[in-house]
Amino acid sequence: MMEGDMFGNTMWAGHWLWMLVIGIVVVIPAWRICQRTGYPGWMGVLILIPIVNLVLLYFIAFSDWPVERSGK
């Protein structure tokens, strides 16, 4: 249909690379926040899942952090 379109198939490779970069930029701070609050760092990966990311933020904001309970 649109044989001479500007984007072609190369846009898919750029799209996935861009999504990977954005994912890394978002996950690394979430991972560090989880570690500093005393929760396992892997919980930071949950920030990538829609709706679950909001639950994670509210959980971290309003729960008692394990690091505060241990007195570190």
From TrEMBL:
Q: Which organism is it from?
A: Marinobacter profundi
Q: What is this protein called?
A: DUF805 domain-containing protein
Query: What does UniProt list as this organism's lineage?
Result: Bacteria, Pseudomonadati, Pseudomonadota, Gammaproteobacteria, Pseudomonadales
Membrane-crossing residues? Answer: 12-31, 43-62
Keyword annotations: Membrane, Transmembrane, Transmembrane helix
